[in-house]
Amino acid sequence: MDSLVADKYRHRMVGQIDAAKRTEDDLSKSERTREGILSAAARLFRHEGYSATTMRDIAQKSGIEAGSIYYHFQSKDQILSEVLDLGVRQLYEKVSEIVRTAKENPEDFRKTFALLIETHLTYLLTDSDFTSANIRNYPMLSDEARAPHRELRASYAGVWSSFLKDAKRAGHLRSDISVTAIRQFVLSAMNWTVEWYDVDRYPVHILAERMSKLILDGMCSRRRVDMEGLKTSAANSVKAPESMGKAEKTRAEILRAAARMLRDNGYKATTLRQIAEEADMKAGSLYYHFKSKEEIVDEVLNAGLSDLLSGVSAAVEEFHEPYDHHARIATAIWTHLDFLFKASEFTSANIRSYGMLPNHFRERHGKIRHEYGKLWDRILREAQKDDAIRSDIKIVPLRQVMLGALNWTVEWFDPNRAGIEGNLSLPEFSEMLIKLLLEGICDRVNATDAEQVKNH
């Protein structure tokens, strides 16, 4: 009898163990499927954008049936939320570890700074679709969609602030610009790389090395840059022709309305109905002026780049040889920012929506973007030729990093908040960025003294 009970007990235990094992296997399979879905979604959000990606796209990319995805996630919004969280959390944990270690060796500021730059760029450009998806999609999300992620993003910013505050107390950073502004400047320069950097051409560590040197020491020689020759009057708003008929005025208003919608919502989330509402007209009336949304967007994007190119070109043409190169570069930066925030709704719409544009849009406007890049390359090369820019800086990467730092400001600077809680006006903000780009974030007096001591 005891033997029979024992056999039954063993049989029951074996059954329970087998059941537990099956549950673990099923759980592992479920977890693997879930991870596959998130990875597929992150890659699609990174390259196609959240609005353009469907649940069917994610299911297909992850290799499961379209209906099966709902066993793991209730909605695309839930998937996005987890992708966004992972994108920052992975980076936050790694950067936090680096900063903790740095507190034990505060004398290695430049080495640690370079490592932080390389870490951020590596996650952003190669190691994590999650980080890249976060950077590219977060700016276009509603306040409601952003809310759950603000705390973690603030924590990441806080790690950088902690590191920079320690560096400032140790005398490594310049004292005339706040840590918050320096942090925003550094992160801006890095984040815009998702729009232009080609990882197949250069390893990320080379980009990180060049960017670190530029941010720390600026583009100019080791002295304070005199900007008395800055020509702020060169940045003038683009004005519509005075003699316009009714149809032309309506057409212009439609384009301005579309520019505002693109700037605030992005390409995919902007609809013809929204543009019509913004222009205070019926949706059907748009077709009297434009054949499609694509035609409207095309004109807005072209106008934005044309305004910027003509505006900066006109500004630098006010200078004559022999050039005051620092004032010339400063004027070009000032003008770029003026068009981005004030002079042209079309320019800000172009910059903000660029990352999520379909490839055919980018290709159509590639020529004028290339022309704008060539304009800056000429300005910078002429300055380098006359020793106004350090000879150890390569011009094209310099231009790309610089314009990236300027363009990303549309994601965090609001000129309408000038005077509120210490917020800067656009002129004050522009002057600050000019100083950072030309002179770098480091304290030049201390850096020069340290270099002299080292050389003697």
Describe the structure.
- The chain is mainly α and 456 residues long.
- It has three domains: 1-74, Arc Repressor Mutant, subunit A, CATH 1.10.10.60; 80-218 and 440-456, Tetracycline Repressor, domain 2, CATH 1.10.357; 232-394, Tetracycline Repressor, domain 2, CATH 1.10.357.10.
- It is 67% helix and 0% strand.
- The chain contains 19 helices and no strands.
- The protein has helices spanning 2-47, 55-62, 76-102, 109-127, 129-137, 143-146, 150-169, 179-191, 204-217, 246-265, 272-278, 293-316, 325-343, 345-353, 359-364, 366-385, 395-407, 426-439, 444-455.
- Helix 10 (246-265) runs parallel beside helix 14 (345-353).
- The protein is globular, with a radius of gyration of 26 Å.
- The termini are far apart.
